[in-house]
Design brief:
Helix content is 77%, strand content 0%. The chain is mostly helical and 174 residues long. It is globular, with a radius of gyration of 16 Å. InterPro entries: Hpre_diP_synt_I, Hpre_diP_synth_I.
């Protein structure tokens, strides 16, 4: 099988799974009085994609997921905020994975990704409303990012353990 075609199929599956997780997440009401707080379920796919496809193709997964979920379940501002958070989160997680390889856990990578996702969204919001006082809001979101990042990291780690037992990704590297 053509490796490029196989990569395209995996890439399409990742976008589809991330979109489904975005939809599922939109159905889960969080009992928190904090606007914009989410679990971050699509980040499971972002982490798995980073580990299996690398950052350039994961960038496509993140942008496609944000645009599609924004058009389907959100609006213009949700796209802008999600892109700010998603791109900063991807950048931070890709740097961590690139420079630490086996020295840093996937769970800690996920926690830093969750924190940076919130930071990216708050930076975008601060630019939109032209005030830096929203950075205080980031401190609250940062504490919420730790348990959600932990959950996403554990889930991604376990999913990778299951995927490593298959031959799905052996074709990508050949």
């Amino acid at each position: 099988m053509n490796s490029k075609a196989y990569r395209l199929v995996i890439l399409s599956l990742y976008v589809s799974m991330a979109l489904i997780l975005s939809y599922v997440e939109s159905l889960i009401p969080l009992p928190l009085p904090i606007p914009g707080a989410k679990i971050g379920l699509p980040n499971i796919i972002t982490l798995v994609s980073l580990l299996t496809l690398g950052w350039p193709l994961t960038l496509l997964v993140v942008v496609a997921r944000v645009l599609l979920s924004g058009f389907l379940f959100g609006g213009g501002f949700s796209i802008v905020y999600s892109l700010g958070g998603g791109l900063l989160s991807l950048f931070v997680m890709a740097l961590i994975l690139h420079f630490t390889k086996d020295g840093f856990s996937l769970i800690l990578t996920s926690i830093f990704g969750a924190i940076s996702h919130n930071l990216g969204q708050v930076i975008v919001a601060s630019i939109v409303v032209q005030t830096s006082s929203l950075m205080l809001y980031f401190l609250i979101l940062m504490f919420l990012a730790i348990p959600t990042g932990l959950f996403i990291g554990i889930t991604a780690r376990e999913l990778m353990r299951l995927l490593d037992k298959t031959t799905i990704f052996k074709r990508l590297n050949s």
